[in-house]
Specification:
This protein has 480 residues and is an alpha/beta fold. The protein contains 16 helices and 18 strands. It folds into three domains: 3-95 and 97-137, Methylthiotransferase, N-terminal domain (Rossmann fold); 157-406, pyruvate-formate lyase- activating enzyme; 414-479, Nucleic acid-binding proteins (OB fold (Dihydrolipoamide Acetyltransferase, E2P)). It has a five-stranded parallel sheet, sandwiched between helices. Strands 14-15-16-18-17 form a five-stranded mixed beta barrel. The longest helix has 24 residues, at 385-408. The chain is globular and about 65 Å long. Bound molecules: iron/sulfur cluster (SF4). Residues 165, 167-169, 172, 174-175, 209-210 line the site of iron/sulfur cluster.
């Protein structure tokens, strides 16, 4: 059996795509192995968000070549879209054409005589010759469906619903790598969701490059006809046409109707989506978790403007206020970049004070990474790396303090937690609906388990837990 290994760098959308590709090969007689092991084929879904991500990719390609000199190495994703990786990989497919990767790999293996004749006959129709990184800028490209569902190894499933971005934030290489925004049709989203429920997933995370833009391209396509009807009875009253001019709320409402989906989470958003009208549409969606990752990037209006972001402190603050009114106790998390060109100490102080004001539950801190081809790459007043490092440490400390404050506010409260794993002490680990990480133990179950071997809750089950303590930004809870 041919061994194939997959790895993914970067975002959840990349992880989703890698899981879907791996699932096709799993279903077609390949042995999917860990990329630290020897394999005949290695597939790396690359990232270009920072110089570090690109360095990691090159390091991994070298490692695969060392593990198996004869291996077929495949590069795809954002870095492969923006750079010539032909010196490191045998096949390079950028951010468009991944739906053909399985065909390209079969072709290459046939050319190498690595596939049996029977296998070839069985899959002749899948084989494709040509492999190229297509330029995707300025082109209208449809959403690309992948050849299999993304069966994640985790307890929650990622469900990709959108790709690309029409914006040009000054520091961002993603929109340059992934091209214009395109939305996945609702029937295809629902079909995959039902297949993932059948695989036992009950929590779903909607992911994309910029979820705010879901549906924005439908109007463009409307002239080109729809993607078929939402025939199945439980979606009655929802026609593609109504969705074809809709937004992310239509996807959320439709997914909520699927039996077996107990929790819906939204991937990264921008505050601009959180209008009162949008919130009114989703506030009664039972399965929707009250956790909103609203990417901010800076707490200084001057820097937000220089970044070409669409938010201001005021618009962001108002969006958070609307969310908290509709979803009391909601978890607000965010991304912040430190060291953007021109960022002064005052700008940074504004970011710190804004973090206190909003009271973020979790902050992902990124050091500015100058990306070729972006506006910020050529901007003057690049911040010295030691200053960036210092500010990054200060902001991480702030993030830790705010995370603990958020837990402290909830001491004594009970939350439903989806059990994902168990730690070395046998404590159940998972997240609350507002996205607080919890380690839960059951005093009673522990003694009963010791005494009578009573089972602790299973992985994948959702159990009530009372938050009783804090341990390094982690809530310690008792399983009720
Ligand atoms: S919104 Fe900005 S940061 Fe996000 S993908 Fe688009 S261009 Fe990049």
């Amino acid at each position: 059996m041919i061994r194939i290994a997959f790895a993914s760098l970067g975002c959840k959308t990349n992880q989703y795509e890698t899981d879907a590709l791996a699932e096709w090969f799993r279903r077609h007689g390949f042995s999917v192995v860990d990329d630290r092991d020897k394999a005949e084929v290695y597939v790396l879904n690359t990232c270009t968000v920072t110089a570090e991500a690109e360095r990691k990719a090159r390091q991994l390609f070298r490692r695969y070549r060392k593990l198996n000199e004869q291996a077929l190495i495949v590069a795809c994703g954002c870095y492969a879209q923006r750079a010539d990786l032909s010196d490191m990989a045998d096949i390079a497919v950028g951010t468009f054409g991944r739906s053909e990767i399985h065909a390209l790999i079969l072709d290459a293996l046939i050319m190498r005589g690595a596939l049996s004749a029977d296998y070839c006959t069985a899959f002749m129709d899948v084989v494709a010759e040509r492999a190229e990184v297509q330029s995707i800028l300025g082109k209208f490209i449809p959403y690309e469906e992948l050849p299999a569902p993304a069966i994640s190894s985790e307890t929650r499933a990622f469900l990709k619903v959108q790709d690309g971005c029409d914006h040009r934030c000054a520091y961002c290489a993603i929109s340059l790598a992934r091209g214009p925004s395109r939305s996945r049709s609702l029937p295809n989203i629902l079909k995959e969701a039902q297949e993932l429920v059948a695989h036992g997933f009950s929590e779903f995370v909607l992911t994309g490059t910029n979820l705010n833009l879901y549906g924005s391209d439908f109007l463009r396509r409307r002239g080109a006809g729809t993607d078929g009807e939402l025939s199945s009875p439980e979606f009655s009253g929802l026609s593609v046409n109504s969705v074809a001019s809709g937004d992310l709320s239509d996807v959320i409402i439709a997914l909520n109707r699927i039996e077996g989906i107990r929790r819906l989470r939204l991937g990264s958003l921008e505050a601009g989506l959180m209008t009162q009208e949008f919130i009114d549409k989703i506030v009664d969606v039972e399965s929707l978790c009250p956790s909103f990752h609203l990417s901010l990037q800076s707490g200084s209006d001057r820097i937000l403007h220089a970044m070409r972001r669409r938010d201001t402190r005021d618009s962001y603050r108002d969006a958070v206020a609307r969310i908290r009114k509709a979803f009391p106790g909601a978890g607000i998390t965010t991304d912040l970049i430190v060291g953007f060109p021109g960022e002064t100490r005052d700008d940074f102080e504004e970011t710190l004070s804004f973090c206190d004001e909003i009271g973020f539950l979790r902050i992902h801190v990124f050091r500015f990474s100058s990306r070729p081809g972006t506006l910020a790459h050529k901007m003057p007043h690049q911040v010295p790396s030691e200053v960036v490092a210092e500010r990054s440490e200060i902001l991480r400390a702030k993030a830790a303090q705010l995370a603990e404050d958020a837990i402290r506010e909830r001491l004594g409260q009970t939350r439903d937690v989806l059990i994902e794993t168990f730690d070395e002490r046998g404590r159940a680990e998972g997240y609350t609906p507002e996205y607080i990480f919890v380690k839960g133990h059951s005093r009673r179950a522990n003694c009963l388990q010791e005494a009578y071997g009573v089972e602790l809750p299973e992985q994948g089950s959702i159990v009530p837990m009372r938050i009783v303590d804090i341990e390094e930004q982690t809530a310690i809870a008792e399983i009720i």
